[in-house]
Amino acid sequence: MNFKSILGLAFRYLWQRKLRTFLTVLGVVIGVGALTLLVSFGLGLGKWAERMWQYDDLMSMVVVFSPDESALEFEESGRREPPAPLDKDMLERIRLIPGVADAYPDVAFGGSVGFAGREERMMVVGMPPYGDDRPVRKLLQGGGLFSSTEAREIILSQYAHQSLLKDSGLVSLVGKTIVLSFSRDPRLKKEGEAGWTESGTIELKVVGVLAETGHEMKRIGLWAVQARLAVVPAGLATKLWDNERVLGMRDSLSFDDDQGPNRRYSRILVRVSNPSVAEKEVKPGLAALKVDFLYFPDVLEAQKRSFIVFNIILGVIGGISLVVASVGIVNTLVMSILERTREIGIMRAIGASNGEMWTLVMFEGALIGLLGGLIGYGACWALGSGIDAVLIRDKLGGAGEESAGLFYFPLWFFFGTVGFATGLSWVASLYPSWRAVRVDPVQALRHE
User: Fold this and answer.
1) What phi-psi label fits residue 57: left (phi over 0), alpha (psi between -120 and 50 degrees) or beta?
2) Which of 40, 41, 54 is nearest to 403 (CA)?
3) Measured in Å, how far apart are the chain's first and last C-alpha atoms?
4) pLDDT per residue over 316-359, tens digit each?
5) Beta strand 61-65 pairing with 292-295
6) Residues 6+ apart with CB under 8 A from 329
7) Angle formed at CA 108 by CA 139 and CA 261, multiple of 5 degrees
8) DSSP string covering 250-301
9) Which one of 14, 76, 261, 378 is most buried, by most CB atoms within 10 A?
10) Which helix (H) or strand (E) holds 63?
11) pTM of this prediction?
12) Sequence-distant (≥ 6) Cβ neighbours of residue 420 within 8 angstroms
């Protein structure tokens, strides 16, 4: 018998017992469905996390920590010297490291914005000077970005914008000047300093308004976008920190600290030009400065390894159901052979070889696995895509290129899943094939 004849016989035998074939294929569909749904969920979580990191442009960022922020790590490491303090001098030294595109303090402080007699408390953060300011640009509802890194400009949240607009008769504050009020850190008052005040103000031009993020988690730098958020240029925020001595929300100084000539920063954010330079130049350069730092691609790699273990566990759980389904394949094929004993005897008597009988039964099992794998994977793909479209993307993923769902179906996963189902079914057919080969033609012809 040629290949076409064997394949045709395999189809015919399965079609003759429609109900039994249907139930066996259904078992494979359920097994493949469980495997596909669990593993695609694990893959989707990993992909979603990676996309969110890329969306926030964290993949080119290194976070340098202050001594207080890394105190626990210092105590556990057993080093003789604590990390170097983060101040203006250290900032300039970091900027001189080859491969550093830019470095700036992660400044955040409480304040209030006022316009036409109305005032709202806000958290003010400095915006990272990314190339095209992609994270902020994607979040803008109106207006634009800053004209320079030290411009006296501000971007308001939609909540603050709407609150300040009340009773003003205006449609938008973009282009208008508002007043930002802030508190100064009393610990930084110099002895005998004249003209010291506990608060300060600065006039800023509104250049943009952030859209509401709803359930989405979006960040500007390391700060989550929220209702009471205002954004100023990173250079301006640093000037307010250094010169106006604003009372920061992440102040690394304690009341007993020797402040020295420069005020310290809690964190310095470093943007690298490309990952290869980061590994060869930036990380060794920061280590030489004796500062503690965190490179986000390293964190992502560790996260990916965790997701690999997670996916393996999910795959094993889903694979168990497929193994159970393979028992059904063995049962179906053995029953089929017992029912076709006389027919098998006739085929053997007219010249069918052991190899042809073996191949015939193996094809029947493989066809069951292939059909169940295709249907199971397709059903789970439709289910996962539907869940993403209806429930997830509106809540978590956003729109456009940064959209992400909880299920991910790469092409290799399709071929791997269907191939695994077919291969397992093929293995499950080994015993029934062996039974078919052992059929004695003489005894089979007497079988009723």
Assistant:
1) left
2) 54
3) 26
4) 888 888 888 888 888 887 777 776 667 767 776 777 777 777 77
5) antiparallel
6) 24, 27, 28, 365, 368, 369, 425, 428, 429
7) 145
8) T----TT----SS---SEEEEEES-HHHIIIIIHHHHHHTT-EEEEHHHHHH
9) 14
10) strand 61-65
11) 0.64
12) 35, 319, 322, 373
Contacts of 219 (CB under 8 A, 6+ apart): 56, 135, 225
Assigned token pair, 228:
């009471």
Q: Which amino acid appears at position 361 of this protein?
A: V
pLDDT mean across residues, the chain:
77
Q: Which residues pair with 208 in a beta bridge?
A: 143, 155
From residue 170, give the alpha-carbon distance in Å to each of 140, 228, 319. Answer: 19, 21, 62
Residues 6+ apart with CB under 8 A from 11: 367
Residues in the chain: 448
Supply 358's token pair.
């073996």
The pair phi, psi for residue 147, each rounded to 5°, is -75, -25
Q: Residue 71 — very low, low, confident or very high, per pLDDT cuts 50/70/90? A: very low
Strand order in the sheet with 267-272: 100-105, 267-272, 61-65, 292-295
CA distance 264 to 267: 9
Q: Which residue, chain included where needed, has tokens 């240029």?
A: 233
pLDDT per position as a tens digit, 261-317? 457 788 888 888 877 788 888 888 888 888 888 887 887 788 788 888 888 888 888
